[in-house]
Amino acid sequence: IDGSFGFEIETFEFINILQVHGFPQVMGVLTHLDLIPRTKTVRRAKKDLRHRFWTEIYQGAKVFYLSGVLNDGLYPSMEVHNLSRFISVMRFHPIQWRLSHAFFLADRMEDLTAVEETRLVPMKDRDIALYGYVRGTNLQENSWVHVPGCGDYRIAEIKLLQDPCPLPDGVKKR
Question: How far is the C-alpha of 58 from the C-alpha of 124, rounded, in Å?
Answer without folding.
Answer: 42
